[in-house]
Fold:
Amino acid sequence: MTEQLPGPYEKIDLKKKDKDMLKKRYKQIKYEVGEAVGVIAAQSISEPATQTTLRAYHSEGRTQLVTTKGLPRLIELFDARKIPKTPTMEIYLDKEHNNKEDARKIAAKIKETKLKHILKEDSIDLINLRIELVPDSTLLQNLDITTESIITLIKKSIKHINISCENEVIMIEIAQDKKPDFTISDLQSIRVRARNLFTKGIKGIEQAIVECENNQWIIKTLGSNLKRVLKMPGIDASRITSNNIFEVAKVLGIEAARNAIIKETITTMREQGVDTDVRHLLLVADAMTNDGTIQAIGRYGLAGQKSSVLSRANFEETVKHLTNAASGGEIDPLESVIENIIIGNIAPIGTGMIKLKVKD
Structure:
């Protein structure tokens, strides 16, 4: 009698229908020895990708959250751009905070608030040569910001000014020792600097929209700061997502970045009606993250680091690769497809992998 194996190796009794389905799926995922899976993956992704939209921006329905879609997004992912054009996050809430009121409160705390966002009006008084800022009392109350904290922030950030407050109007004047030299343009530059001062929230998150999907409240953001958001109370850290793959790699590790590449790629392609098999995308994501870092597929990434001289030269910068190889005495092992096709050999794929010996 054989001993029962523990954990995931325990024997599971399946119905005939389930067994047949598993056998069918297993046969579907098999491939022949010598099949050029890399070439097939490249073709299966690239050809349908040419049919996707060329528009870089798309408004997601009523939310008006502008994000990069289609071919520009695929190029961003496969080129491994450090910062995407439109970084976004999807923030899920835990059970305790999964309601509209808490979602709005957390969204208000997350969204980057600059001084200009909480001002009712701001102007330059040309008679008294000063800047006048009028904060919106309702917004101050909602965001839990006081007039005193605004004055302190301006004092810390801008030098050589005198600041006072009267009837909830903040007045900024250039200090007396600087007055003989200053012009109206100096006042204008101080006004612009004051308006752009970071007041509250998380830097980099320009917009936060609250939505309800399947009884789950989600905060969708324009801008990403995964490290800071994960520390916030009320967030479900296990389900939070970011489309910035380098940020994911830095905060959660390379395996999470690999999953992010797969998720972003398949989501982008499915939105455009492209039904590429996920295994091709898995292969690409594995290749991009194989050495523990995220590498692009272009000349400065995987294609430019191949061991074959001819394969590198075939892609881009032909003269550079051939010259460097010649001057360094490099030898091409002729182990892959491209270099064998270039010199007229049979490529080592499919039946070309087999070498026959004939007895004379």
In short: The domain at 33-87+243-305 is CATH 1.10.1790 (PTS-regulatory domain, PRD).
